[in-house]
Every structure is written in structure tokens, then in C-alpha cells.
Amino acid sequence: MLRERIQASGYTFFEKLKSIDYLLILLILFISAISVFAIYSTEGGKLSFYTKNHIVRLSVFFSLFIVLSFVRVSTWYKNAYLFYLLGLILLLLVLFFGISASGATRWINLYFINLQPSELMKVAIIICFARYYHRIQSSDIQSFKFLLQPLILLIIPCYLVLQQPDLGTSILIAGSGIAIIWLAGTNIKYFIYSGLLLLVSLPFAISVLKPYQKSRILTFFNPDRDPLGAGYQIIQSKIAIGSGGFFGKGFLKGTQSYLEFLPEKHTDFIFTLFSEEFGFLGSIILILLYILLIYRIINVGLVSRSFFAKLYCFGFATAIFLYVFVNIAMVLGLLPIVGAPLPIMSYGGSSLLSIMLGLSIVMSCKIYSQDQISAY
Amino acid sequence: MLNRGRNIEKGRVITRRMFVLAAAKILLFTGISSRLYNLQISDREKYEILSDKNRIREWKTPPQRGIIVDNFNKVLASNDRVFQLHLILDEINDFDLTIFKIKNLIGLDKFQVKKLYKKKERLKPWDTLVVSDNLTWEQFSKINLYLHELEGAKPVLSTSRFYPYANNLVHIVGYVGDASPKDLEKPEIKENFVPGLKVGKYGIENSQEKMLIGNYGIKRYEVNASGKRISQIDYIKERQGSKVNLTIDIEIQKYAQELLKGKAGSICAMDIYTGEVVAMASSPTYDPNKFTHGINQKDWQEIRNNPLKPLINKSIAGLYSPGSTFKPLVALAALEYGILNPNKSIRCKGHKHPYELYGVKYHCWKKEGHGYMRLRNAIKQSCDIYFYEMARLLGVDKLSIIAKRYGLGTNVLGDLYNDEKNGLVPDTKWKRRALEESWYLGETVINGIGQGYIQTTPLQLCLMTSQIANGGYKIKPHIIKDENINYKDVINKIKLNQSNFPLHERNYLDDINVEYYQRMYHKKSNINFILDAMFGSTNEQYGTSFKSRYDDPKYQFAGKTGTSQVRRITDLDRELDLDTDQIEYKKRDHALYIAFAPYKNPRYAISVIVEHGGSGSKAAAPLASKLIKKIIDRHKLREQFNNGNTSLA
Known about the structure:
Chain A is mostly helical.
């Protein structure tokens, strides 16, 4: 039956196989493998709960990625708003039925998985905007209407996520959305104006922040303000990375992590652990892998014919970049500590699911790169 | 077509903007990479140190104190196992709660709790508070049982000082106690200190701190973020302090201490050739073990308020007028300077006709007088009149040269004891400098019978006796075994010197420094005269210590009694002529005795002082007699042991 559908779509199965971006798959597998070792190390070299879970999730979501890659790109296009709407509904559900952990309500219980809808929203906003801008003519793009609509589409999920509270994800969603608004060709002056506006309103914005968020930001500027409290994570993370040196302390020998000095080492601070054990060399290689990944995604966008595919790929590439950058800059003490996982590396089902989902759409763009999508 | 053109334009915009974004991404990645470079390569060392500081924590382990042994290797100060409870202050969040829990566990009273709070105030927040340094086993096991509930509590298995001969040695060995801030300034303590470590407070324990304290060990542990020890990385073992070997013979010491029981005073005994102090008793005494864990108020008051002053080490810190025990030295000086012919006879006419000088009367101790006396008899019967005249002829400056040479006026044991006194040998220069007065001849006269300004410690008298008894040779007195001294050599050196009688260029009548084991006399015959006179004093009828003599040549000794006044004797006193026990204790004379034994081939010198004991012949000489027997009985054992010779020769 599958075969019939493929034929019907004008691509033979072999054509599809041929157009798969194997390098991208290889990169994903490679980073996944690294992540398994890293998570394994967080458990002190024992094949325990986190490692097992991570392996299971990687296998499941990677399979999902492969399967979803063959979904036609037009199908994604058609269902883009639906996807966004689903994300919004889930975010609202979090608001009412969410599960709390460490002071934040971010998850809903789906019985087989505790889903974090904000992570799905990260992809949903990209696909939604890609569709939105797909059909807008470049001449219309500067009009007030087309400026306001996406802003509303963006602000609603950002606000909902901020309420959880989850500043990090909210910023990442906003960042991805703004990236597509930029890519679509919105006049540069809007960005400059809103940038200035943001700067001016920053003091007011800070006053709205939760006390712990404020303290995080203050601590970011001066970690020694409270070395055992809010500054602890930044200080310990920097110590771990710095003490890794060029070659690192060696696999399973990261003292900062196995002696529990590193907080949240299997999620947000996984890079710190990796960097402590594999040093400057390992870190640069990992960053290069991410650059390569981003490059491959951009490449898919470049070879795609449809604007939807282009916008999506460039947008998703930017999103991946943002996740990686924010996470690493954060653990290096360059940005305040806001919850932001490192794609694929960090332990966490929802994040992994959304990344794999996002990548499968990229792969779908690649396989069906010659598809023209009519605006309907 | 138009639509298509627009589309191409839109595609271009998207691609262009993508490239702008890509450029920004590359820029930001470069930023991250340079930050990584900064942390991991430029500042690597700094972070490595910080990381090690995080994960490695050191614990210092206290060293065992070196033991102190006597001449026969008998342990005089040892280390006992004790159980202690320490609190690591920076691991405690709620100090009050922790103290409350501990209080209930080991049963501290209000006073002790208060003391702990006071103690804590003086400590820095990262210091260790020693809650108790001597827990019972029951308390210790209770603490261990509830350890998980006690923040920062650390049960410690430690050792503490124990003195098996407690009261018998405290003045020699001293005791240990908690280190005071002043103690911690001493480099040897500062370098090796570990919280809870006891340091020497007095005596050998104090002066030999460098030897005894040892080096602490270091246990390095890898700890996790909550401070739990994960693994031991390193253990530098602590090193026990070195053994300190004393020259004391504990059996003799014990006996000397026993002889002084109930009295205030001192007994010193010394090897006249080697200078080894064999016994140095001071009475009354106290138990040093009470100080180890902090003495309680009641015991402390008892020691402090005792009128016989147990805290004073009378052998070296007690100053006494030597009285008649000074006479052999005065006679020696007079002979050496050729002041008078020993056959010169002077008449002692008793209290009715005392010695007179510039209108001041000087009495002999004997009411009815000694009659005509020659020098030997004057020493033997201790006639004061003879010595008044002889001192007058001699002059104080010449006397002081000889007195200083034979060991008076400077401390004997160097810096071993911080309370050892120098004593005082007066001369005209001294008086002018210290009192800004000129010397009166009357002062010389009473100096001749060991009264007046002159002050000596019992150990100095013992040294003086030794150096006369060994034939007039300077020896090196010591109480810690000196590996550098070859005893056989020393004895041979002195004895050979005696027999060969070498001619020396130097004039022994000048104020000169004499090297160890070199002669100090001018004419050998003078020394021999004094020794013979002392023999008479003990072993011939009318000798002052005739009653304490031994006829057995093995124990036969020669000595000189002394009775030193603690106040001026008035004419009324002379008239009353009360017995010692009729006089108020504080006003009684000190009883002194010096002796050497055996008379033929002497080996030991002894000095005895009984404070307010009355006359030397009644109160001091009998003690000396008893101790001399003990010393001579143990001489063979000592010789064998010191020569490493186990066969009975």
C-alpha cells in the first residue's frame, strides 16, 4: 500500500532513498552516540536508569524520525496550523492539568510519557510561520497586518510558556519565530526598533520577573554574589570546563560531575560534563558536529524548491543554532542560566522528540525537495 | 510571469537573509570557541586548582608524642588511648541544636555547655571545636551510634599523655595541656599543630617540644559535593615524636621523693664525673596527669593554695642561702689564694665573746664556742668564727671567682627549664651595679658562712660538691642523655689529668673560663685538704654529721652540713635558744646538706635542702645518708647498663 502511494506521488522508492541526506543521518547518529556516552558518564559509568531510558528514547525517536521523513512535505504544510493549534491546546492543558516539578509546571501526563508541550511548540512555531510566510508575497510582507498576525501567533505561546514558568524555552520559541520573520524579508528597521524598545523596557521587564529569575540574571553578572546559592551552578560549571584542559580528564573521570558538584548534569549541563571529560578538543569537535548539522539543514533548504521548505529549513537550522548556542553560552557563563537543553545530547524525552520531529520534517523537505507547494 | 519574478525575488531575499544569519551564527560560534579556549587553555591551571579544592579535602591526623624514659629506659611519660569528640564548625548549620543533642547524649552539665560556647567564640568558623578530649567508652559508642544525626561531629580515637610515676617526676618531666595562643606562636608547635593536640607546658615536655611533638599525618580524601568522603587519595603517615632519654634513675628519684614526703625541700644527686643528674626531687609535689585534660578548679586551688608551694621546682627555682655548705668553698678559695696557713689557729670563744668588726658582733652558732680551731677542725665542726676571719682576709671578689668557677651563680641546666634561677654570687662590682652601694667588709664576713647576699639553688650546690669531689674538674651537668658524651672517656680524662698533673700556663687564680673536663684548681693539695676535712665532718667525732655516717667503706661518704637562717637572729633568740619545733614554721632555719660518696673513689654528689627543717645535721644529713646508700646500691646496675654490659663484672 505504501508503495502505491509513493508511486502515486511521482517518486519511486529508490528515488526517495537516493535523495535521503545520509550525511545528516550520520551526524544525528554520531551526536546520539556521543550523548549516550555522556549520559552514561553522568551515572558514574553504570548502565542505569538515565542511560537506558536515553537509549530507548533515542531508538524510538530515531525510528520515528525515519518513518516521518517519508511523510510528504505538503502534508506538513497542510497540517502546519493544526500542529500549531495542537501545541497551543497542549500548552493550555499544562496550565490547568500540568505536572509540577521543582517549582515549575511544564509537563502533562500522557501515561507513557510526561510530555513537555513547550518543546513541541519550538517546532510548531517554525512550521507554522513557514507556512504563514510561504504564501505571502514579498511586496505585502511589510504591511502592518502581516506584521501583527505573526507577532500575535508568537506572543501567545511565549506568554503561556513564560507562565509555567520557563524563561529559557520561551526565549527559544521567540528566537525561532523572530528568525523566520527575519528570513521572510521583514524590513530590517522593525528589528532595530523593537531591539531598541526591548532595551528601554528591560528594567520594567526585569521587575516582572520571578525572584529566582531575577537572581539568576543578577548572578550571571556576578556569580560570586552568592557562590553557594544562585552562583553555584555557573561557578561549578566553569570550574569543570576549565579544569578539563585541552584533552580533558578522560571518559568517566570528570571529578566535578561524578562527585556531584555539577547540578543538572544530565540535562542542561551535559556539555559541561562532556567538556570536562573530553577537554577543549572534544568540545570543539562537538561544536563542529553541530555546525555541520546546521550546515546540512541549511543545505536542504537551499536545494528545496518551495518557500515553505526553505523557510522551514533555514528557520529550523537557526533554531538548532539557538538551542546549541544558548545552552553552551549558558554553561560557559556567557549567558544567564535559563533552562535550555542541548539538542540530542541532553536527557529529556520531549526535547528529543521535538528535535527528531523537526529533523524528520527537514528530511522530508530533502526527499520531496522538488515538490512545489501551491498556496491554498 | 510577474508572479514568478516575485517568487524569484522572494527566494533571493530568503537566501540572502539566511546567509546573514549564517554569518551571525559563525560569529557567535567563534565567540563560544574563544571562551572555551579561555577557560580550558589560558586559565586551565586556575580551574584545575579550584577543581582539586572542590574534590580534595585534607584531614590532619595527630602525631603520637614521643615518650620520655629514664636512664634504664623505664617509661616516665607514655601515651594512652583516649576517645574524643570533635566538632567541625563549618559543617554545622545549627550549632545550638547540635550542642543540645550532644549534651543529652553524653550528659554535659550547664557549666560545661557554657564553656563550649565560650570556646567556640574564640575559634574561627572553619576551626575544630574539641567538645571532649576524654570520653568514656560508653559515651564514645553512643556518639558513634547517633553520628548521622550530629552535624559536623567527628569521634576521634586519639592518645593522651600519661605519667605512670605521676607525683614523683612532675618537676622534671613537666606536663602537657591545651595549646595557648602563645604556645601556637612557637615555630615547632605552629608547624605541627593539629586541633586537640596537647603541648608541653612545663619541664622536659615543654623544653623538648621539638623532639617530642612529632609530625602530623595528612589524610587526603576525595569528597563529593555534600562533603561525603568517597575515597582516600593519599595518606602521609604521622610520625611519632622522638624518645627523650633522661639520666634520672626513677628508683632513686622515687626514693628521694619519698624521703621528702611531708616536707618542703629538694634533693639532688649527680654523677661527679659525667654530670648526669641521677635524681632531682622537689617537695611537695602534684599529679601532672590532672593537667592533661584540663585540671578542675578544686584541684587547682588545692595546689595553688598549698603554703609549701608545690608548683615551685625547688631544686632549680628555689633560692637559698647556702649557709655552712658554702664553707668548703670558702676554705678552698682561701687556700688557693694562699691567704692563710691551714695550721693557723683561731679561737672561738662562744656567745659571750663574739667576733667583732667595726663594732658589729658576729656570733658562732655554738653557744659555748669551739675553742682553738685549725682550718680542718673549723670545717669539720663548722666553726663560724674561723670563717668570719678567713673571709675577711680573703675578700669577697676572690671568693666570688672561685664560687662562680665551681658552679654557683649561673643556672645549671641551660634553657631546659624556663624557671631555673641563676642564684647570686655577690662581689663588689655586682653590688655597685645592682644596688649602687659600695661593699662593706661586714658583708664579706657573713658571706664567709654562706649568709648575706649569696643565693644558690640546690642543684648548684650539688654541682659545686661534684666538682670538688671529682678533684676539681669542670663537668657538664645534664638531665637528658647526651649521645655526644662518651662517659668512659670523660672519666678517664679527669682521672688521667689527676694522676699526670700537667703543668699549665694559665693562672688558675684569675677569673678565667675553664673548658669542660679541665682542672679548675690551682693546687691539687688544696682540693685534697677540703675533701679530707669533709671526711672529718662526717666520719670523725665532733663532726657535724657524725651521726649519719656509714662505717662500711662501700657507703662511706663525706659531707658538710648547713643551717641557713631565714631571718636575722636577735640577742633574744640567742638567749631563748629554742628547739626547732618550738619556733614558728616560717621562722625556722633551712636545713642543708651536701655530700659525696663513696669517700674512697667517689662517684656521686648529693645536696639536700629541707625548708624550715631546723639544723642541717638533724634534718638534712639523715636523708642524704639514706639516699646515698640507695644510690651506691644501684651504682653497679647503672654502670652495667650505661656501658651496654650485661655481665656482672
